[in-house]
Amino acid sequence: MNKVISEHTTIGVENQKLAIWEWNNLFSDELANEGKVYNVSCHSILFITSGSAKYKLDFEILDLKEGDVLFLNPGQVFQCVELNDASGTILSFGNDFFLVYYHKDFFKVNVNLLNHLSQQLIISIGNTHRVNLYSLLALIKLEMTELHICKPTIIQQRLIEALLNMLHRECEKQAVKDVIVAERCLAIRFKLLVQKNISMQYNVDYFTKELKVSKSTLQKATKIAFEKTPKDILEETLLLEAKRLLLISSMRIQEIAYELGFTDPTNFTKFFKRHEEMTPDRFRKQELLSYYQK
């Protein structure tokens, strides 16, 4: 069991501006083969419209039911564990979808909305708003049946904007009420910046300079928003990326260590073992064994 998983495919539309799939059309018979690994290539939103399902996202088991919305981010590892008459829709945003907006103000607002939503994991939509949400999805799909080669139509962009705003509203309803808006925004900006700069070379000092805030201000923000210190978030992000690479890449342990900014592979092994209580090599073999036993 020395090889890594090579039988994975992607969720996303890197070469398209926008794509929407009905649940069964996307996965067809593949999800019936539980354990199939998907690499998320771009921002995607998964809507469960009926039934229930169990998924594994970045090594965490998630139980989803009708009305749940799951946010998928580039680089994540996604697996199906169990389906119970589940159906739904996936909406994927290509890397340049928002760059072709007709109005720059729409670009800024909607990119910020998507970035904010991408830091959530799951939100549950109540019965009342569920009808409106599914109607918007249906309208988006209908608009996409028209042939518009150059760039998304204004109608399509407005529908996407309405959808993101609706999801953001539901997200805010479920957020902790005593979280100060400014501090939550700072914490999210920090987390997004960390995700774009995953390397042992970047410490908390680097990010405070980039964000132009003091350590104490950042510490307070992450504690309020995530109940974690900035260092905790840095190490969690680094560890998660290591686990992703161990599962879906063919890179050797030494290569992964250097990719993540460790100057010595031994230090990477110590870091990994401190968090997971096993070596990177053992983790890879254990995950692969679990995968091939499906």
TrEMBL record:
The keyword Kinase is assigned to this record: no
Origin superkingdom: Bacteria
Domain HTH araC/xylS-type: 188-286
GO molecular-function terms, A-Z: DNA-binding transcription factor activity; sequence-specific DNA binding
Keywords: DNA-binding, Transcription, Transcription regulation
PROSITE patterns per UniProt: HTH_ARAC_FAMILY_2
Cross-referenced PANTHER family: ARAC-FAMILY TRANSCRIPTIONAL REGULATOR, TRANSCRIPTIONAL REGULATORY PROTEIN
Name of this chain's protein: AraC-like DNA-binding protein
